[in-house]
Amino acid sequence: MSMIRDLRAVVRPSRVSLRKEGGTYDTTRSPATSSAVVDCAVYRDGRRIETETPLTPHEAVRLARRDGGFVWIGLHEPTEAEFSGIASEFGLHPLAVEDAVQAHQRPKLERYDDSLFTVFKTIHYVEHDQLDANSEVVETGEVMCFTGRDFFITVRHGGQGSLRALRHRLQDDPELLAKGPSAVLHAIADHVVDGYIAVADAVQDDIDEVETEVFSPGRKGSPRGSDAGRIYQLKREVLEFKRAVSPLLRPMQLLSERPMRLIDPDIQKYFRDVADHLARVQEQVLGFDELLNSILQANLAQASVAQNEDMRKITSWAAIIAVPTMVCGVYGMNFDHMPELHWRYGYPVIMGITVVICLGIHRTLKRNGWL
Question: For 15-29, how does the pLDDT look when each residue is reduced to its tens digit (9 = 90+)?
Fold first, then answer.
């Protein structure tokens, strides 16, 4: 049982901040690789069977069925023609094959007679120097897994989420791989959910940054309401994140709670740990959405208050200017018989009274907070 004790350390290496290392996922297959098959290997007693030349899927199946063990085939964005031969070899259900080739599927778990079909959404945090209304925060991909008695097939879509490093870590622990395809399924699920946790931490930093800027007093050089576009963009990215996390919770609960003949009992209990971590990420993502709603409302309220203050100032100055406008209008009329018109001190007196009235209005409005 020492393998089970060490399982977490094998499939969950110490996480590194996405902002410092540029992401937890490495690149996909080499551009020089013409085939959709990224890797194809046979594992017996937890160890990879080494061959002089790379195995084709057909050769790997024959070798696994002759010597025992299981086949692990990894593919990246295969076409229907490329995948049809493998599907026929392992008797994969046509509906699952169609989903695996077309991609853009919702995270799910489907059980067929001799296999399990699992869909994971991978999330990659997109680094950016400064968040703006057009920044892409998260990038999604997909990993489809076919789990059988003696085979495990992964079909990946998107430029992120390579499983090469994960395969190497598993190969370093033969005792774990000896548990068969279900151990690989758990490792991939744990790897994907760990990626969610890292991305959630990075998105939290972006939200904290926007929140600080929205509520920082006396910002200069930033038009009122300019944060609304950034907040809305973050909401869109969080929604994409939620679409990857929320539907996966039920499949993880099924894998951890319901006995399945294709899942090793020693491995099944560890799906409960994955489900717990996934539930925590889901709570974070839901909290992000609610927090962004509050920040957006606060930003719009601030813009509305600022506009009201502007209108009060404009109204106040209009009231002050109305006094000399009225006086000038009265004395600008062409009447011969007007009081003070021919009075020697009429002009300075009227000007003085006008200034006094304007100063009085200004003082009153300033005392009441309008200026």
Answer: 433 333 333 333 344
**How far is the CA of 3 from the CAs of 167, 185, 276, in angstroms?**
17, 16, 21
Q: What is the 3-state secondary structure (H, E, C) of the chain?
A: CHHHHCHHHHHCCCCCCHHHHCCCCCCCCCCCCCCCEEEEEEEECCEECCCCCCCCHHHHHHHHHHHCCEEEEEEECCCHHHHHHHHHHHCCCHHHHHHHHHCCCCCEEEECCCEEEEEEEEEEECCCCCCCCCCCCEEEEEEEEEEECCEEEEEEECCCCCCHHHHHHHHCCHHHHCCCHHHHHHHHHHHHHHHHHHHHHHHHHHHHHHHHHHHCCCCCCCCCCCHHHHHHHHHHHHHHHHHHHHHHHHHHHHHHHCCCCCCCHHHHHHHHHHHHHHHHHHHHHHHHHHHHHHHHHHHHHHHHHHHHHHHHHHHHHHHHHHHHHHHHHHHCCCCCCCCCCCCCCHHHHHHHHHHHHHHHHHHHHHHCCCC
Tokens at 230, concatenated: 């950034």
**Length of the chain counted residue by residue:** 371
- Residue 14 is predicted with a pLDDT of 39
Question: Under a CB-based contact definition with an 8 Å cutoff, are residues 166 and 191 in contact?
Answer: yes
CA 307 → CA 90, 229, 302, 365, 368, distances in Å?
67, 18, 9, 18, 18
Q: What is the mean pLDDT of residues 150-161?
A: 87
**What is residue 278's predicted lDDT score, i.e. its pLDDT?**
94
Q: Output phi, psi for 367, to 5 deg.
A: -65, -30
Whether the CB-CB separation of 354 and 312 falls below 8 Å is answered with no
Segment 185-194, tens digit of pLDDT: 999 999 999 9
Query: For residue 247, which of 191, 294, 196 has the smallest C-alpha distance?
Result: 196
Please compute the mean of the pLDDT values over residues 240-254 and round it to a whole number.
Answer: 91
Q: Among 9-23, 92-106, 125-139, 229-243, where is mean pLDDT lowest? A: 9-23
Say if residues 188 and 145 touch (Cβ distance below 8 Å).
yes
Establish how many alpha carbons lie within 13 A of residue 117's alpha carbon, considering only the half-sphere containing its beta carbon: 20
pLDDT value for 194: 92
Q: What is the DSSP letter of 50?
A: P
